[in-house]
Amino acid sequence: MLQLVHEGHLGIEKTKSFARQALWWPGMSRMIADVVGAYATCSAHRRQQPSETLMPHPVPSYPLEKVGADIFTLAKHSVLW
């Protein structure tokens, strides 16, 4: 069952959530964490950087007082959003 729930290689938390929809046994969460954590491919592709801390800013008092933009790369093209 451990191999079946890990078949999608979703990571530890998503695999636990998926398994809990249909299964339960004592120590299931720990066993899933051990199996997924020991899988070389999953460990190699695990998120390497932690999420950035959100930085609050004052709420603007009128429309367009503050404007923001994002730049990202998609298929080797930079896009301004």
Describe the protein in words:
With 81 residues, the protein is α+β, with helices and mostly antiparallel strands. The chain has a domain at 2-45. It contains four helices and two strands, in the order ααααββ. Strands 1-2 form a two-stranded antiparallel sheet. It is elongated and about 55 Å long.
**Sheet with the most strands, sense and barrel status:** 2 strands, antiparallel
Order of helices and strands: HHHHEE
- Compute the average pLDDT: 84
Strand order of the largest sheet: 1-2
Q: What gross morphology would you assign?
A: elongated
Distance between the termini: 44 Å
Strand content: 5-15%
Helix proportion of residues, in percent?
25-40%
Structural class: alpha+beta
Unreliable spans: none
Rg from alpha-carbon coordinates = 20 Å
- How many DSSP-defined strands? 2
User: How many DSSP H or I helices?
Assistant: 4
